[in-house]
Amino acid sequence: MLQDDREHLELEKLQIETRKFVAETRKLLAEETKLKREAFWYPFLVGAGLITAASAIINLLSRTGA
């Protein structure tokens, strides 16, 4: 009986650990997806920032020159 209890507790401990690993894996996969999405959009955001900055500079230069 004591051996059965020990085995049951060990199995329960392994199941809990497995659930933790599954949860951690899901969390890491979600983080990976987020980082991939950010990496995809980053060049567009940088380009938009450069266009905005160039537009502001051109606008400033055209106002001071007139």
Word description of this protein:
This protein is mainly α. Helices cover 97% and strands 0% of the residues. The protein is built from 1 helix and no strands. It has one helix at residues 2-65. The longest helix is centred in the middle third of the chain and has 64 residues, at 2-65. It starts with a helix and ends with a helix.
How many runs of DSSP E, i.e. beta strands? Answer: 0
H/E series: H
Structural class: mainly alpha
What is the overall number of helices? 1
Contiguous uncertain segments of 5+ residues = none
Kindly estimate the percentage of residues that lie in beta strands according to DSSP. Answer: under 5%
Q: Provide the residue-averaged pLDDT.
A: 94
- Fraction in helix: over 70%
Head-to-tail CA distance between termini: 96 Å
Radius of gyration: 28 Å
Tell me the major beta sheet. Answer: none
Shape: rod-shaped
Task: Report a brief summary of the structure.
By secondary structure, this protein is mainly α. It contains one helix and no strands.
What's the helix and strand layout?
Layout: H1 2-65
List the defining traits of the structure above.
single chain, 66 residues, 1 helix, mainly alpha, 97% helix
